[in-house]
Amino acid sequence: MNPSVKVEEISKPADPLSHVDPRDLPILPKPYDDAEKIPAWKPLSDKAKGEYESSLDDTIALSIRKPASKEEEERLIRQFLDGLEKLFSRENNWTFLQPMTLSMENCAKCQTCAEACHIYEMSGHNEIYRPTYRAEVLRRLYYKYLKPGGALFSKWLHGDIELNWTTIARLAELSYRCNLCRRCAQTCPLGLDNGLITHDLRKLFSQEMGIYAKELHDNGSMLQLRVGSSTGMNPLVVKDNIEFIDEDTSERTGIPIQTPWDVEGADVLLIHNAGEIMAWPENHGAFATIFEAAGIRWTLSSESQEALGYDNINYGLFYDDVMLAKVAVKHAKAAKKLGVKKIVLGECGHAHKALTVIADRVLTGELNIPRESAMALLKEIVFSGKIKFDPSRNDFPVTLHDPCNMVRLMGIVQPQREILQLLCPQFREMTPHGVDNYCCGGGSGFAIMSGHNFEDWRMHVSGRKKMEQILHAFHDELDPSIRKYVCAPCSNCKGQMRDLIKYYDMWNQCGISYGGLVELIVNAMADAQPGYIEWGLF
Amino acid sequence: MSTTVVLYLITYLAMAAFVLAVAARFVKIFRMPLHLRWELYPVAHEMGNKAKYGGSKLEEVDWWTKEEGKSRINELKAMIPEMTFLVLLYEQNRKLWYRSFPFHFGLYILSGMLALLGLGAVCELYGVTIAAAGTSVGSVIYYLTKLAAIAGLFLASFGAVGLLQMRLGDANLRGYTSPATIFNLLFFLLVFIVAWLTLLFADPTFDLTRAYVQNLLTFNLSAPVGSALLGLEILLAVVLIAYIPMTHMAHFFLKWFTWHKIRWDDEPNRIGGAIEQKIIEQVQYPVSWSAPHINADGKKNWLDIATEEIEKK
Ligand code: SF4
Ligand code: SF4
């Protein structure tokens, strides 16, 4: 690692700008305290290094092809400058112009935000991951190229920066070394937001230059808009899968369920992250069991074209306002078509935030259909007395991960806790928790990004703080014979948990497993056969 | 034109520049389009305990049917300590707070001192003598002005030296410190040093300064300042005051936006409401982003683009 890399060095040749050496990273708690025994970091292949821009650190998130000629580089630089201008125009960025301008123009460079960032801290304080590093690069470019007199005064006023293709390529990669968790923003004494700056940088790259993570765009938003879901499931496949889940769940619980489809006028349209249906079928099974037992008038929607009814993901939230708007409108249309009273979002944090909060100022008129968190509805059901529970079935250590999008960014903090406090006798909090939580390291789309050796970076750097928190939460019971459960009521976070547990072999070494909230609820239902939770399926 | 007249004119100009710069930056930000919601919890106006643990109305079933309660008391409970004592900085960056708090608090007290000088000048116009041995009102204003000057200058100078030392010495800040940042702190220090000298050697009773304020108020531009040192201090101070809102130091009022219009802006969009009206206007803005998947041409607006089908391969 280069501990003193300066902001202006982003444009200077160095391969890479800063190394990420696993030996520089803070030591993890036992049993991972021996750096030699934790999985090795796979180096980038020579082929990848030859084809793609990789001069930032030791990984690649975006696979940006190297420009073939000087002319192409020049064209890309001009395109970047056009995008920068659009980012600060009313017409092209009305969505975030005010907060972006405030964050650009008022930073006191006090670095109070730095220590709040898990990536900066757990990279061993690698300078390029400091929350203000990428913000400062953008700030200097903003003053130099967009402000009157920038060429003359900005160096003196704001510091030096040179704009060349290296700067742009590194900045693009750097915008994907942040989880957009906004923990740093919470600590800024001036209310500024380096998470937002990163978010808008990603937008500049996507909306102007067509540079994005293919997992989020091609295999995410675009696939979803084409077939109905980023999983690739069309309505036939999804219905087939749900039928199978219904059968399997009924068998496991002894409570017959049949998921209702396309019920007009239902009280609740439940929309899952469709990843649940593929990777965690027990999650939908549990929702269906709970809703049926509580007598909820609910439905799923099989809309996949003019409307999007069965996959609540909206990856535009992470990189592109246009994609965000396209998908949000289609989600609302699915509810409008059925005439349901409200949309309930399943266990997916980013979908919660995208549709409830962000799209709140996108959806107007009859598309403004009420949206509600599953956490709120589940709490009401659990405490309604409609279902009998036997908490002793959940008598194992449980801790709760707070998905940033749902908790810090929406204020949905208590419902899930109250459920766990009631149903899990050995529930314990992580430190810190609630709105002060740390991101799982998979936020902003990272959980589905594993190209090249990006997974190594995600496991060693961005996921390291969560790993430490989990081990601390269970520190007195790390014996693998004691089964432990990390409750993560969010599909993306669950994806990251699954990867962390596998990567570090945490099930075999520590007895740590993971899952959602609804699985714990069904596991404690007195009328269901015991043992809904299946352990150690890695 | 005499030097004295020039000084008076510069003072008026600087005050006008300050007001205009504050107004211009405020209006520029204020008139920006309504942005998408980007709140960050805890949101201080949430009711009851929610403000403390960071909860929101979204924790409730059918939240849109519930009364939209906002607690102004909770909001003040967060705002007043933050504005006065920089609580967030105290919690998150103690080392900096030891320097930044005295600096800011000193500036607050010095602003109070300016108000007291104005009050004293007005009182004198009405025949109240402002002096140690004056009437009870006169002597209270006299001592309060002096106390505010000494306390404010002491704290602000201590803070400025501390901030400068940290800017130059702390490896964490060095790479993010531009020449202008150092210049700003040196500028403050210069104003404070000349202020100390004026206080000690030129105008310990503030009689000259008060007379200067009175002349400003009565447009008596030919009256002498009475001390070259005081004249220098006035010149430096008013230029600094005019300069502040043109820099990032405008955060002293722009912070209102970052809290009230962003972090705490959780106002839901209601059908037929003012927010909806603004959105309907803003989705008419033309889009000219160039990436192929946006499919914009500078004429299509946000509504067209957001509702356009993508090409299905
Ligand atoms: S974003 Fe805020 S906390 Fe971070 S350096 Fe700037 S002013 Fe300080
Ligand atoms: S948003 Fe989160 S990941 Fe990004 S810089 Fe801030 S704290 Fe770090």
Topology record:
The complex is a heterodimer of chains A (538) and B (313).
Chain A: H1 46-51, H2 70-87, H3 90-93, H4 97-105, H5 118-122, H6 131-146, H7 150-158, H8 165-174, H9 183-187, H10 194-209, H11 217-227, H12 235-253, E1 268-271, H13 274-279, H14 281-294, E2 298-299, H15 316-319, H16 321-338, E3 342-345, H17 349-357, E4 371-373, H18 374-382, E5 398-400, H19 414-423, E6 427-428, H20 454-462, H21 464-473, E7 484-487, H22 491-503, H23 506-510, E8 512-515, H24 518-523
Parallel strand pairs in A: 1-2, 1-3, 3-4, 5-6, 5-7, 7-8
Chain B: H1 3-30, H2 50-53, H3 72-85, H4 87-92, H5 94-125, H6 136-169, H7 171-174, H8 179-202, H9 207-218, H10 228-243, H11 251-263, H12 274-282, H13 302-307
Helix pairs in contact in B: 1-10, 5-6, 5-9, 6-8, 8-10
Question: Would you kindly provide a written description of the structure presented here, covering whatever features stand out?
Answer:
The complex is a heterodimer of chains A (538) and B (313). In chain A, the strands form two sheets. Chain A has a four-stranded parallel β-sheet with strand order 2-1-3-4. In chain A, strands 6-5-7-8 form a four-stranded parallel β-sheet, with helices on both faces. In chain A, α4 (97-105) packs across α10 and α12 packs across α14. Chain A has helices at residues 46-51, 70-87, 90-93, 97-105, 118-122, 131-146, 150-158, 165-174, 183-187, 194-209, 217-227, 235-253, 274-279, 281-294, 316-319, 321-338, 349-357, 374-382, 414-423, 454-462, 464-473, 491-503, 506-510, 518-523; strands at 268-271, 298-299, 342-345, 371-373, 398-400, 427-428, 484-487, 512-515. Chain A has three domains: 7-209, no CATH class; 231-379, Rossmann fold, CATH 3.40.50; 386-523. By secondary structure, chain A is mainly alpha-helical. By secondary structure, chain B is mainly alpha-helical. Among the domains of chain B are: 86-242, no CATH class; 283-307, no CATH class. Helix content of chain B is 65%, strand content 0%. Chain B is built from 13 helices and no strands. In chain B, α6 (136-169) packs antiparallel against α8 (179-202). The termini of chain B are far apart. The relative contact order of chain B is 0.12. The model of chain B has no long low-confidence stretch (mean pLDDT 96). The chains are: A mainly alpha (538), B mainly alpha (313). Residues 116-117, 119, 131, 178-184, 194-195, 198 of chain A line the site of one iron/sulfur cluster.
